[in-house]
Amino acid sequence: MKQLKVSGQLNTEHVKKLIKAFYRNDTIVAFDEENVSNTIKRKLANQDIDSVISVVADDGFISIYIHDSMGKCLFEKKESINDCSLANVEKFIYYAMCEYRGFELGWGTMTGVHPVRPVYFNVCSTTKESDREHFLKEYQARYLISDKKLKLTGEVARNEMRSLAGYDYKDRYSLYVGIPFCPTTCIYCSFTSYSMEKYSDQIELYLNALIKEIKIKAVNVAQMYGDKKSPLCVYIGGGTPTSLSAGQLDRLLGQIEESFDLTGTVEFCVEAGRPDTIDEQKLQVMKQHHVTRISVNPQTMNDKTLEIIGRRHSVEDIIRVYRMASDMGFDNINMDVIVGLPGEDELDARRTIEQIVGLCPAGVTVHTLAIKRAAFMNTNQKIYDDIYYGKKDADADRMVDITYKALEENGYLPYYLYRQKNQAYGLENTGFAKKGKECLYNILTMEELGTVIALGAGAVSKYVEYGSKINIRREDNAKSLRDYIKKMDKIAGC
Fold first, then answer.
1. Domain shared by 125 and 37, yes or no
2. How far is CA 311 from the centre of its chain?
Protein backbone atom coordinates (compact mmCIF):
# COMPACT_ATOMS: atom_id res chain seq x y z
CA MET A 1 0.00 0.00 0.00
CA LYS A 2 1.15 3.51 -0.78
CA GLN A 3 0.35 6.68 1.09
CA LEU A 4 -0.21 9.84 -0.94
CA LYS A 5 -0.04 13.18 0.85
CA VAL A 6 -1.29 16.21 -1.05
CA SER A 7 -1.06 19.81 0.13
CA GLY A 8 -1.35 23.31 -1.26
CA GLN A 9 -3.56 24.33 -4.17
CA LEU A 10 -4.14 20.81 -5.45
CA ASN A 11 -7.12 18.52 -5.93
CA THR A 12 -6.37 15.36 -3.95
CA GLU A 13 -8.55 13.01 -5.99
CA HIS A 14 -7.19 14.26 -9.29
CA VAL A 15 -3.58 13.86 -8.14
CA LYS A 16 -4.43 10.35 -6.93
CA LYS A 17 -5.84 9.32 -10.32
CA LEU A 18 -2.68 10.40 -12.08
CA ILE A 19 -0.35 8.74 -9.57
CA LYS A 20 -2.47 5.58 -9.64
CA ALA A 21 -1.87 5.26 -13.39
CA PHE A 22 1.74 4.41 -12.53
CA TYR A 23 0.80 1.95 -9.75
CA ARG A 24 -2.24 0.12 -11.07
CA ASN A 25 -1.70 -2.99 -8.93
CA ASP A 26 -1.22 -1.05 -5.69
CA THR A 27 -3.68 0.42 -3.24
CA ILE A 28 -3.16 4.15 -2.74
CA VAL A 29 -4.58 5.96 0.28
CA ALA A 30 -4.65 9.67 -0.54
CA PHE A 31 -5.47 12.61 1.69
CA ASP A 32 -5.12 16.34 1.99
CA GLU A 33 -2.31 16.70 4.52
CA GLU A 34 -3.81 19.89 5.91
CA ASN A 35 -7.28 18.40 6.40
CA VAL A 36 -6.72 14.72 7.09
CA SER A 37 -9.60 13.02 8.88
CA ASN A 38 -9.35 10.76 11.89
CA THR A 39 -10.84 7.96 9.78
CA ILE A 40 -7.91 8.13 7.35
CA LYS A 41 -5.43 8.28 10.25
CA ARG A 42 -6.91 5.12 11.77
CA LYS A 43 -6.87 3.36 8.40
CA LEU A 44 -3.21 4.20 7.83
CA ALA A 45 -2.23 3.13 11.35
CA ASN A 46 -3.43 -0.41 10.63
CA GLN A 47 -1.87 -0.78 7.19
CA ASP A 48 1.51 -1.87 5.88
CA ILE A 49 2.77 1.21 4.02
CA ASP A 50 5.71 0.51 1.70
CA SER A 51 6.21 4.08 0.46
CA VAL A 52 4.97 7.62 0.97
CA ILE A 53 4.44 10.03 -1.93
CA SER A 54 4.11 13.74 -1.13
CA VAL A 55 2.94 16.31 -3.68
CA VAL A 56 3.10 19.95 -2.58
CA ALA A 57 2.23 23.20 -4.35
CA ASP A 58 3.25 26.27 -2.33
CA ASP A 59 5.13 29.59 -2.58
CA GLY A 60 5.51 29.44 -6.36
CA PHE A 61 6.92 25.90 -6.36
CA ILE A 62 5.53 22.42 -6.96
CA SER A 63 7.36 19.44 -5.51
CA ILE A 64 7.12 15.68 -5.34
CA TYR A 65 8.92 13.52 -2.78
CA ILE A 66 8.92 9.73 -2.51
CA HIS A 67 10.16 8.01 0.68
CA ASP A 68 10.29 4.37 1.67
CA SER A 69 8.64 3.04 4.84
CA MET A 70 11.75 3.90 6.88
CA GLY A 71 11.77 7.52 5.71
CA LYS A 72 14.63 7.19 3.21
CA CYS A 73 14.21 9.55 0.25
CA LEU A 74 13.92 7.58 -2.98
CA PHE A 75 13.12 10.45 -5.33
CA GLU A 76 12.50 14.18 -5.31
CA LYS A 77 11.75 16.80 -7.90
CA LYS A 78 10.94 20.49 -7.52
CA GLU A 79 10.09 23.21 -10.05
CA SER A 80 9.00 26.82 -9.92
CA ILE A 81 5.46 27.32 -11.10
CA ASN A 82 3.59 30.57 -11.57
CA ASP A 83 0.36 28.97 -12.72
CA CYS A 84 -1.07 26.08 -10.71
CA SER A 85 -3.61 25.30 -13.43
CA LEU A 86 -4.70 21.70 -13.74
CA ALA A 87 -2.76 21.19 -16.98
CA ASN A 88 0.50 22.48 -15.51
CA VAL A 89 0.16 20.44 -12.33
CA GLU A 90 -0.63 17.30 -14.33
CA LYS A 91 2.39 17.76 -16.59
CA PHE A 92 4.77 18.21 -13.66
CA ILE A 93 3.46 15.12 -11.86
CA TYR A 94 3.43 13.07 -15.06
CA TYR A 95 7.02 13.85 -16.08
CA ALA A 96 8.23 13.27 -12.51
CA MET A 97 6.54 9.86 -12.32
CA CYS A 98 7.83 8.89 -15.77
CA GLU A 99 11.33 9.68 -14.56
CA TYR A 100 10.92 7.74 -11.32
CA ARG A 101 9.06 4.73 -12.72
CA GLY A 102 11.08 4.51 -15.94
CA PHE A 103 8.21 4.39 -18.44
CA GLU A 104 5.69 6.66 -20.15
CA LEU A 105 1.95 6.17 -20.64
CA GLY A 106 0.43 6.20 -24.10
CA TRP A 107 -2.46 8.32 -22.89
CA GLY A 108 -0.21 10.73 -20.98
CA THR A 109 -2.11 12.62 -18.30
CA MET A 110 -5.50 11.56 -19.63
CA THR A 111 -7.42 9.80 -16.85
CA GLY A 112 -10.94 9.91 -18.32
CA VAL A 113 -13.08 7.03 -19.53
CA HIS A 114 -14.04 8.62 -22.86
CA PRO A 115 -10.88 10.06 -24.48
CA VAL A 116 -12.41 10.14 -27.98
CA ARG A 117 -15.50 12.16 -27.05
CA PRO A 118 -14.02 15.69 -27.39
CA VAL A 119 -12.30 14.67 -30.62
CA TYR A 120 -15.57 13.30 -32.03
CA PHE A 121 -17.34 16.61 -31.48
CA ASN A 122 -14.45 18.47 -33.09
CA VAL A 123 -14.52 16.16 -36.11
CA CYS A 124 -18.24 16.79 -36.49
CA SER A 125 -17.95 20.56 -36.09
CA THR A 126 -15.80 21.21 -39.17
CA THR A 127 -15.29 19.87 -42.67
CA LYS A 128 -11.75 21.26 -42.89
CA GLU A 129 -9.12 18.62 -42.34
CA SER A 130 -6.61 21.30 -41.40
CA ASP A 131 -8.86 22.40 -38.50
CA ARG A 132 -9.16 18.82 -37.32
CA GLU A 133 -5.41 18.29 -37.43
CA HIS A 134 -4.86 21.52 -35.52
CA PHE A 135 -7.28 20.39 -32.81
CA LEU A 136 -5.57 17.00 -32.54
CA LYS A 137 -2.17 18.64 -32.06
CA GLU A 138 -3.59 20.87 -29.31
CA TYR A 139 -5.26 17.86 -27.73
CA GLN A 140 -1.97 15.97 -27.76
CA ALA A 141 -0.08 18.89 -26.23
CA ARG A 142 -2.68 19.28 -23.46
CA TYR A 143 -2.62 15.64 -22.34
CA LEU A 144 0.81 14.50 -23.60
CA ILE A 145 -0.78 11.72 -25.64
CA SER A 146 1.59 9.59 -27.72
CA ASP A 147 1.54 9.78 -31.52
CA LYS A 148 0.25 6.20 -31.65
CA LYS A 149 -2.73 6.86 -29.39
CA LEU A 150 -3.48 10.19 -31.07
CA LYS A 151 -3.66 8.49 -34.47
CA LEU A 152 -6.00 5.85 -33.04
CA THR A 153 -8.21 8.55 -31.48
CA GLY A 154 -8.56 10.40 -34.78
CA GLU A 155 -9.40 7.20 -36.67
CA VAL A 156 -12.04 6.19 -34.14
CA ALA A 157 -13.69 9.64 -34.21
CA ARG A 158 -13.89 9.65 -38.01
CA ASN A 159 -15.31 6.13 -38.13
CA GLU A 160 -17.87 7.01 -35.46
CA MET A 161 -19.06 9.99 -37.47
CA ARG A 162 -19.30 7.91 -40.65
CA SER A 163 -21.18 5.10 -38.89
CA LEU A 164 -23.78 7.45 -37.35
CA ALA A 165 -24.41 9.47 -40.51
CA GLY A 166 -28.10 9.48 -41.42
CA TYR A 167 -29.43 8.28 -38.06
CA ASP A 168 -31.63 10.60 -35.96
CA TYR A 169 -30.05 9.49 -32.68
CA LYS A 170 -30.54 12.89 -31.02
CA ASP A 171 -34.32 12.50 -31.11
CA ARG A 172 -34.47 8.77 -30.48
CA TYR A 173 -33.49 6.42 -27.70
CA SER A 174 -31.86 3.01 -27.36
CA LEU A 175 -33.03 0.21 -25.12
CA TYR A 176 -30.69 -1.79 -22.89
CA VAL A 177 -31.84 -4.93 -21.05
CA GLY A 178 -29.47 -6.52 -18.53
CA ILE A 179 -29.24 -10.21 -17.66
CA PRO A 180 -26.84 -10.38 -14.69
CA PHE A 181 -26.16 -14.13 -14.72
CA CYS A 182 -23.07 -16.07 -15.85
CA PRO A 183 -22.19 -19.78 -15.76
CA THR A 184 -19.19 -18.86 -13.58
CA THR A 185 -17.54 -15.61 -12.49
CA CYS A 186 -14.20 -14.99 -14.19
CA ILE A 187 -11.31 -14.21 -11.84
CA TYR A 188 -10.86 -10.63 -13.11
CA CYS A 189 -14.54 -9.69 -13.04
CA SER A 190 -16.74 -8.01 -10.44
CA PHE A 191 -19.50 -6.70 -12.71
CA THR A 192 -23.08 -7.15 -11.59
CA SER A 193 -23.18 -10.85 -12.42
CA TYR A 194 -24.36 -13.85 -10.48
CA SER A 195 -23.10 -17.40 -10.88
CA MET A 196 -25.77 -19.75 -12.17
CA GLU A 197 -24.50 -22.39 -9.73
CA LYS A 198 -25.42 -20.25 -6.74
CA TYR A 199 -28.35 -18.27 -8.12
CA SER A 200 -30.16 -20.68 -10.46
CA ASP A 201 -33.28 -20.45 -8.29
CA GLN A 202 -33.35 -16.68 -8.79
CA ILE A 203 -33.34 -16.62 -12.59
CA GLU A 204 -37.08 -17.12 -13.07
CA LEU A 205 -37.90 -14.63 -10.30
CA TYR A 206 -35.59 -12.10 -11.94
CA LEU A 207 -37.12 -12.67 -15.37
CA ASN A 208 -40.60 -12.10 -13.94
CA ALA A 209 -39.47 -8.82 -12.39
CA LEU A 210 -37.71 -7.75 -15.59
CA ILE A 211 -40.83 -8.36 -17.66
CA LYS A 212 -42.78 -6.18 -15.24
CA GLU A 213 -40.26 -3.38 -15.75
CA ILE A 214 -40.38 -3.82 -19.54
CA LYS A 215 -44.13 -3.30 -19.50
CA ILE A 216 -43.89 -0.26 -17.22
CA LYS A 217 -41.09 1.41 -19.19
CA ALA A 218 -42.88 0.79 -22.50
CA VAL A 219 -45.79 2.92 -21.29
CA ASN A 220 -43.42 5.68 -20.14
CA VAL A 221 -41.56 5.64 -23.45
CA ALA A 222 -44.75 5.91 -25.46
CA GLN A 223 -45.64 9.04 -23.48
CA MET A 224 -42.16 10.55 -23.85
CA TYR A 225 -41.50 9.84 -27.54
CA GLY A 226 -44.91 9.71 -29.16
CA ASP A 227 -44.61 8.68 -32.80
CA LYS A 228 -40.87 8.09 -32.33
CA LYS A 229 -41.39 5.48 -29.66
CA SER A 230 -39.46 2.84 -31.62
CA PRO A 231 -35.95 2.38 -30.17
CA LEU A 232 -33.08 3.03 -32.56
CA CYS A 233 -31.10 0.15 -31.03
CA VAL A 234 -31.90 -2.71 -28.68
CA TYR A 235 -29.05 -4.30 -26.74
CA ILE A 236 -29.40 -7.32 -24.45
CA GLY A 237 -26.29 -7.43 -22.27
CA GLY A 238 -25.04 -8.86 -19.04
CA GLY A 239 -23.63 -10.96 -17.50
CA THR A 240 -24.41 -13.50 -20.15
CA PRO A 241 -27.93 -13.24 -21.63
CA THR A 242 -27.72 -16.77 -23.01
CA SER A 243 -27.49 -18.02 -19.43
CA LEU A 244 -31.27 -18.04 -19.82
CA SER A 245 -32.83 -21.21 -21.19
CA ALA A 246 -34.17 -21.14 -24.75
CA GLY A 247 -37.69 -20.85 -23.35
CA GLN A 248 -36.77 -17.98 -21.04
CA LEU A 249 -34.92 -16.18 -23.83
CA ASP A 250 -37.95 -16.61 -26.11
CA ARG A 251 -40.18 -15.18 -23.40
CA LEU A 252 -37.91 -12.16 -22.88
CA LEU A 253 -37.46 -11.30 -26.55
CA GLY A 254 -41.16 -11.86 -27.19
CA GLN A 255 -42.08 -9.43 -24.40
CA ILE A 256 -39.75 -6.78 -25.81
CA GLU A 257 -41.39 -7.16 -29.24
CA GLU A 258 -44.84 -7.01 -27.70
CA SER A 259 -44.15 -3.96 -25.51
CA PHE A 260 -42.04 -1.87 -27.90
CA ASP A 261 -42.66 -0.99 -31.52
CA LEU A 262 -39.51 -2.28 -33.22
CA THR A 263 -40.46 -1.36 -36.79
CA GLY A 264 -37.97 1.53 -36.75
CA THR A 265 -35.23 -0.34 -34.90
CA VAL A 266 -32.04 -0.59 -36.97
CA GLU A 267 -29.99 -2.81 -34.67
CA PHE A 268 -30.96 -5.64 -32.30
CA CYS A 269 -28.00 -7.09 -30.38
CA VAL A 270 -27.78 -9.99 -27.99
CA GLU A 271 -24.46 -10.33 -26.19
CA ALA A 272 -24.50 -14.11 -26.24
CA GLY A 273 -20.92 -14.17 -25.01
CA ARG A 274 -19.94 -17.43 -23.35
CA PRO A 275 -19.77 -20.31 -25.86
CA ASP A 276 -20.78 -22.76 -23.13
CA THR A 277 -24.21 -21.07 -22.96
CA ILE A 278 -24.94 -21.03 -26.71
CA ASP A 279 -26.71 -23.84 -28.51
CA GLU A 280 -28.71 -24.29 -31.71
CA GLN A 281 -32.06 -23.87 -29.97
CA LYS A 282 -31.11 -20.49 -28.48
CA LEU A 283 -29.68 -19.31 -31.79
CA GLN A 284 -32.94 -20.30 -33.46
CA VAL A 285 -34.91 -18.29 -30.87
CA MET A 286 -32.79 -15.23 -31.62
CA LYS A 287 -33.31 -15.73 -35.36
CA GLN A 288 -37.08 -15.93 -34.90
CA HIS A 289 -37.04 -12.62 -33.00
CA HIS A 290 -34.99 -10.86 -35.70
CA VAL A 291 -31.80 -10.35 -33.68
CA THR A 292 -29.29 -8.78 -36.07
CA ARG A 293 -26.03 -8.92 -34.09
CA ILE A 294 -24.65 -11.41 -31.57
CA SER A 295 -21.33 -12.02 -29.84
CA VAL A 296 -19.32 -15.16 -29.29
CA ASN A 297 -16.59 -14.11 -26.87
CA PRO A 298 -13.49 -16.30 -26.60
CA GLN A 299 -11.30 -13.83 -24.62
CA THR A 300 -8.37 -16.04 -25.63
CA MET A 301 -7.70 -18.98 -27.94
CA ASN A 302 -5.54 -20.69 -25.34
CA ASP A 303 -7.11 -23.60 -23.45
CA LYS A 304 -4.73 -23.29 -20.52
CA THR A 305 -5.64 -19.63 -20.00
CA LEU A 306 -9.36 -20.37 -20.28
CA GLU A 307 -8.98 -22.81 -17.40
CA ILE A 308 -6.99 -20.30 -15.31
CA ILE A 309 -9.56 -17.51 -15.68
CA GLY A 310 -12.51 -19.74 -14.80
CA ARG A 311 -14.06 -20.47 -18.18
CA ARG A 312 -15.73 -23.83 -18.74
CA HIS A 313 -15.30 -24.08 -22.46
CA SER A 314 -12.46 -24.88 -24.83
CA VAL A 315 -11.06 -23.27 -27.96
CA GLU A 316 -12.76 -26.05 -29.90
CA ASP A 317 -16.11 -25.02 -28.38
CA ILE A 318 -15.54 -21.42 -29.48
CA ILE A 319 -14.90 -22.44 -33.08
CA ARG A 320 -17.83 -24.87 -33.13
CA VAL A 321 -20.32 -22.33 -31.77
CA TYR A 322 -19.08 -19.56 -34.05
CA ARG A 323 -19.49 -21.76 -37.15
CA MET A 324 -22.91 -22.92 -35.98
CA ALA A 325 -24.11 -19.31 -35.68
CA SER A 326 -22.58 -18.39 -39.03
CA ASP A 327 -24.18 -21.37 -40.75
CA MET A 328 -27.56 -20.33 -39.31
CA GLY A 329 -27.31 -16.98 -41.08
CA PHE A 330 -25.91 -14.63 -38.43
CA ASP A 331 -23.71 -12.32 -40.51
CA ASN A 332 -22.82 -9.79 -37.80
CA ILE A 333 -20.96 -11.70 -35.10
CA ASN A 334 -18.58 -9.93 -32.73
CA MET A 335 -15.80 -11.67 -30.82
CA ASP A 336 -14.13 -10.22 -27.69
CA VAL A 337 -10.51 -10.82 -26.72
CA ILE A 338 -8.65 -9.73 -23.60
CA VAL A 339 -4.98 -8.80 -23.84
CA GLY A 340 -2.80 -9.34 -20.76
CA LEU A 341 -4.50 -12.40 -19.25
CA PRO A 342 -2.51 -14.36 -16.62
CA GLY A 343 0.42 -16.28 -18.05
CA GLU A 344 0.04 -15.05 -21.62
CA ASP A 345 2.78 -13.48 -23.72
CA GLU A 346 3.19 -11.97 -27.17
CA LEU A 347 3.15 -15.40 -28.84
CA ASP A 348 -0.22 -16.16 -27.21
CA ALA A 349 -1.61 -12.80 -28.34
CA ARG A 350 -0.49 -13.46 -31.91
CA ARG A 351 -1.92 -17.00 -31.88
CA THR A 352 -5.27 -15.77 -30.53
CA ILE A 353 -5.78 -12.97 -33.02
CA GLU A 354 -4.65 -15.07 -35.98
CA GLN A 355 -7.20 -17.78 -35.14
CA ILE A 356 -9.97 -15.22 -34.67
CA VAL A 357 -9.18 -13.37 -37.89
CA GLY A 358 -9.23 -16.76 -39.63
CA LEU A 359 -12.89 -17.16 -38.62
CA CYS A 360 -13.73 -13.79 -40.27
CA PRO A 361 -16.14 -12.34 -37.67
CA ALA A 362 -17.78 -9.01 -38.51
CA GLY A 363 -16.27 -7.38 -35.44
CA VAL A 364 -13.56 -7.91 -32.84
CA THR A 365 -13.40 -5.97 -29.57
CA VAL A 366 -9.96 -5.82 -27.99
CA HIS A 367 -9.97 -5.35 -24.21
CA THR A 368 -6.87 -4.74 -22.13
CA LEU A 369 -7.16 -6.61 -18.85
CA ALA A 370 -8.63 -4.43 -16.11
CA ILE A 371 -8.80 -6.14 -12.73
CA LYS A 372 -11.82 -4.99 -10.75
CA ARG A 373 -11.37 -4.05 -7.10
CA ALA A 374 -13.58 -6.88 -5.80
CA ALA A 375 -12.42 -9.47 -8.35
CA PHE A 376 -10.99 -12.76 -7.10
CA MET A 377 -7.73 -12.01 -8.91
CA ASN A 378 -7.35 -8.79 -6.94
CA THR A 379 -8.39 -10.09 -3.54
CA ASN A 380 -6.11 -13.13 -3.93
CA GLN A 381 -3.06 -11.56 -5.56
CA LYS A 382 -0.52 -14.01 -4.13
CA ILE A 383 -2.03 -16.87 -6.13
CA TYR A 384 -1.23 -15.06 -9.38
CA ASP A 385 2.13 -13.51 -8.46
CA ASP A 386 4.19 -15.84 -10.67
CA ILE A 387 1.95 -15.82 -13.75
CA TYR A 388 0.69 -12.26 -13.74
CA TYR A 389 1.68 -9.66 -11.19
CA GLY A 390 5.40 -10.02 -11.85
CA LYS A 391 5.02 -9.32 -15.57
CA LYS A 392 5.82 -5.92 -17.01
CA ASP A 393 2.94 -3.79 -18.19
CA ALA A 394 5.00 -3.04 -21.28
CA ASP A 395 4.30 -6.62 -22.39
CA ALA A 396 0.61 -5.74 -22.64
CA ASP A 397 1.44 -2.72 -24.78
CA ARG A 398 3.31 -4.88 -27.29
CA MET A 399 0.53 -7.47 -27.26
CA VAL A 400 -2.02 -4.78 -28.04
CA ASP A 401 0.14 -3.58 -30.95
CA ILE A 402 0.30 -7.12 -32.35
CA THR A 403 -3.48 -7.48 -32.08
CA TYR A 404 -4.32 -4.08 -33.60
CA LYS A 405 -1.90 -4.60 -36.49
CA ALA A 406 -3.39 -7.99 -37.38
CA LEU A 407 -6.91 -6.54 -37.39
CA GLU A 408 -6.00 -3.51 -39.48
CA GLU A 409 -4.16 -5.71 -42.02
CA ASN A 410 -7.34 -7.77 -42.39
CA GLY A 411 -9.69 -4.87 -43.08
CA TYR A 412 -11.03 -4.12 -39.59
CA LEU A 413 -11.54 -0.47 -38.65
CA PRO A 414 -11.42 0.93 -35.08
CA TYR A 415 -14.83 2.49 -34.42
CA TYR A 416 -15.24 2.98 -30.66
CA LEU A 417 -12.92 3.20 -27.68
CA TYR A 418 -13.08 3.58 -23.92
CA ARG A 419 -10.84 3.18 -20.89
CA GLN A 420 -11.27 1.63 -17.44
CA LYS A 421 -9.54 1.90 -14.11
CA ASN A 422 -6.49 -0.28 -13.50
CA GLN A 423 -5.94 -1.30 -17.11
CA ALA A 424 -2.52 -2.68 -17.99
CA TYR A 425 -0.15 0.15 -18.95
CA GLY A 426 -3.05 2.60 -18.76
CA LEU A 427 -4.30 1.20 -22.08
CA GLU A 428 -7.80 1.00 -23.55
CA ASN A 429 -10.57 -1.15 -25.01
CA THR A 430 -11.14 -0.73 -28.74
CA GLY A 431 -13.90 -2.06 -30.95
CA PHE A 432 -12.95 -3.01 -34.51
CA ALA A 433 -15.37 -3.97 -37.28
CA LYS A 434 -15.62 -4.50 -40.99
CA LYS A 435 -16.99 -1.39 -42.70
CA GLY A 436 -20.77 -1.30 -42.32
CA LYS A 437 -20.79 -3.77 -39.41
CA GLU A 438 -20.12 -1.27 -36.61
CA CYS A 439 -22.33 -1.52 -33.52
CA LEU A 440 -24.27 1.76 -33.33
CA TYR A 441 -25.25 1.12 -29.72
CA ASN A 442 -21.61 0.94 -28.66
CA ILE A 443 -20.82 4.28 -30.30
CA LEU A 444 -23.87 6.02 -28.84
CA THR A 445 -23.23 4.78 -25.31
CA MET A 446 -19.47 5.28 -25.20
CA GLU A 447 -19.66 8.85 -26.50
CA GLU A 448 -22.92 9.51 -24.58
CA LEU A 449 -24.60 10.80 -27.72
CA GLY A 450 -28.08 9.36 -27.31
CA THR A 451 -30.53 8.47 -24.58
CA VAL A 452 -30.30 4.90 -23.28
CA ILE A 453 -33.22 3.54 -21.30
CA ALA A 454 -31.78 0.69 -19.28
CA LEU A 455 -33.73 -2.11 -17.64
CA GLY A 456 -32.64 -4.75 -15.15
CA ALA A 457 -30.64 -5.03 -11.93
CA GLY A 458 -27.72 -2.62 -11.85
CA ALA A 459 -28.75 -0.98 -15.13
CA VAL A 460 -28.11 2.76 -15.53
CA SER A 461 -30.34 4.85 -17.79
CA LYS A 462 -28.86 8.00 -19.32
CA TYR A 463 -31.18 10.67 -20.67
CA VAL A 464 -29.32 12.91 -23.11
CA GLU A 465 -30.79 16.34 -23.84
CA TYR A 466 -29.43 18.54 -26.64
CA GLY A 467 -29.54 22.31 -26.23
CA SER A 468 -26.93 25.04 -25.98
CA LYS A 469 -24.96 22.25 -24.30
CA ILE A 470 -25.54 18.55 -23.79
CA ASN A 471 -27.14 17.61 -20.48
CA ILE A 472 -27.07 14.03 -19.22
CA ARG A 473 -29.32 12.75 -16.45
CA ARG A 474 -28.64 9.36 -14.86
CA GLU A 475 -31.20 7.01 -13.37
CA ASP A 476 -29.85 3.94 -11.54
CA ASN A 477 -31.66 0.69 -10.89
CA ALA A 478 -31.12 -1.32 -7.72
CA LYS A 479 -27.95 -3.42 -8.01
CA SER A 480 -28.81 -6.50 -5.99
CA LEU A 481 -31.20 -9.13 -7.32
CA ARG A 482 -33.24 -9.12 -4.13
CA ASP A 483 -33.68 -5.33 -4.07
CA TYR A 484 -34.50 -5.18 -7.77
CA ILE A 485 -37.12 -7.94 -7.56
CA LYS A 486 -38.72 -6.33 -4.49
CA LYS A 487 -38.82 -2.95 -6.18
CA MET A 488 -40.50 -4.28 -9.33
CA ASP A 489 -43.05 -6.21 -7.28
CA LYS A 490 -43.86 -3.06 -5.33
CA ILE A 491 -44.22 -0.89 -8.45
CA ALA A 492 -46.37 -3.49 -10.17
CA GLY A 493 -48.54 -3.77 -7.07
CA CYS A 494 -47.75 -7.44 -6.45
1. no
2. 20
Q: Which domain holds residue 309?
A: 173-486
Give 30's strand partners: 4
310 and 457, same domain (yes or no)? yes
| Angle CA 96–99–100, to nearest 5 | 85
CA distance 247 to 336: 26
DSSP 159: H
Shared-domain flag, residues 336 and 416: yes
- At residue 246, the pLDDT reads 97
Q: Helices 203-225 and 246-259 sit at what angle, rounded to 10 degrees?
A: 20
In contact, 110 and 145? CB cutoff 8 Å: yes
pTM surpassing 0.85? yes
DSSP string, 226-277: GGG-S-SEEEEEES-GGGS-HHHHHHHHHHHHHHS--TT--EEEEEEE-GGG
Phi/psi of residue 71, nearest 5 degrees = 95, 0
CA dihedral 453, 111, 238, 253 (to 10 degrees): 30
pLDDT digit string (tens) for 433-486? 999 999 999 999 999 999 999 999 999 999 999 988 899 999 999 999 999 999
The answer to the question of residue 228 being in a domain is yes
Is residue 158 situated within a structural domain?
no
CATH number at residue 92: 3.40.50.10150
